[in-house]
Structure formats: structure tokens, C-alpha cells
Amino acid sequence: MNDVDLDAVYFAGFFDGEGCIAVALVDGRYHKVRISIGQTNEQVILDFQRFCGGTGTVTLKFGPTGKELYYYQLGGSTQAANALRRLVPYMRVKREEAELAIVLAERIAGSGYPRQQLTDEEIAERRKLADAINSITRWKARGIG
Amino acid sequence: MTFYPPPEYIAGFFDANGTVYVADTARNAPRLRISITTSHKLVLVSFQAALHVGTITLHQRRAVYDDQWRLNVTSIPEVGRFLDEIGPHCIIKNTQMILAQKFIDHIKDYGIGRALDAGALAVRLELAYAMSEANGYGRKLVDLEVEGTPS
Prior knowledge:
CATH topology of chain B: Endonuclease I-creI
Number of strands of chain B: 5
Shape of chain A: globular
Strand order of the largest sheet of chain A: 3-4-2-1-5
Largest interface: A-B, 24 and 23 residues
Oligomer: heterodimer
Helix content of chain B: 40-55%
CATH superfamily of chain B: Homing endonucleases
């Protein structure tokens, strides 16, 4: 067990339990991978943010009963993929969508910024991956922008 | 092939989706319970196989979303084993795990059930209230025979 990243093992379990992998659709055309997680314990959310490289945002929301909920969102495809790469070896529940999200993020990173002119073929390939992820998570791509 | 998840993984999952609580009963005998609820039954099966604890039940059948399954750990030796193996790796539920260990220690010293004297029962109820507060429910106990188990 010496080579095992114990933070990653713990957070893989934590993310499998509470986390979410989603693909956002920007301007109805460009895909963006993002991960998010919500918890009432602020410290663990801040630790998870550090685990993800210190990027992303933590916001305070209030649940239906008025309980404080700390919500972490990492919206950059590359950063989200980097975090998922560390978690994937230990994930059980969300491994399939995590692996697909990494492939999608690599496509996005490989062609420069998402808003640059993309070919229809490339957009179709990304849409396929996004649909596959969203069909697992049962989310529809949420349009933003 | 059965997958045996490492304790750190189970602790992370338990911190996210689990609960440790003390349920009251009409017989005035507070009972310690651990449960993990998720729609992914297989992950619960793997926890059960790794720790040799609990029973899995269908908790909630849902029309739109996946059914919810629950791993219930109720026997004192099994709760003790869960605390020994998973407790040290928990972060969010660390306080609850410490209280649960005190509860188990108290049971070892004074026994379970209805034969407790008033002093021992008061100590156990105080632990139960502290657990409820740590879970964010204030000083109240779940009535096992009225409300079922908390999610």
C-alpha cells in the first residue's frame, strides 16, 4: 500500500458519495466539463479544493432546512480532468463517467480554447461524449452563456 | 470478482452518505446504529464483504431516480468492528465515531437492554443526545418504532 495516494482513496469514496460530474453547454455549442460537490462541513470542502489544485470556487448555500451547505465547483475542463485523473483509480460508482469526462476534457484541451472555431465533426464527437456522460448521470447538458 | 474497498474509501463514502445515530425505543433502551444509503447497491455489497457487517435492505423505491439501498449495521460486535476499521479514517463524522465508541464502551461496562440502572441509563441517554447534536438534529432521539431510521 506504500504507493497508494491515501488522500485520493478517501476523496474517491467521498466524491463517489456526494460528487457530481456534469457537462455544461456554452452558447449552445461548446462543451465544458465540471465537477462539483456539496457538504455541510466546510473544512472537508476546502481540503477537497486543495486536493484539486486549489482552483475552483467554494460558495455558501442554505439547504431546505436552513442548514449551511458548502458547495465546491471546479469548472475548468483541464483542472476537472486533472482532479478526476487522481481519483479514477480508486473510484467505483462514478468511474465510467469520470473516464469519459477525462477523454472529453482532453479533446477540449487538445484543440485550444473551447470558444475557438471548431469543426462540426469535432463538435459532434464532443456531443457524443457529453451525451454518454449525461446518460450515465441522467443529466441533460445544461446550457450556460 | 469481489472488490474489497480500502478503509479510506469506505470512510470517504461513509462521510458522504453514512450516518451513525442512536435510536430510541419505547422500551427506553437507546440503540446504536450505523447506516449507509445509496442507489448503488453493489458498493454496499462490497462494504459488507470487506467488513463482514450489516444487512442490505431496499430503503426507498423511486419512480424517476434509482431505488435507494441501505446497509444497516445494528449488532454491537459489528458496530464495534466498523468503528475500529473505518473510524480512524473518518474526517466529517469523527465526533460521532468517538461518541459511538464511548457508547460501545459503556455497553461493555454496563450491558445492553432494559436492565440498566437509572444512573447508567442517564449516561447512555446523554451520549445519545450528544450524538443527535453532533448530527445536527439538536437534543432529540429518533423513535425507532415510530419514525424508522433517519437518512
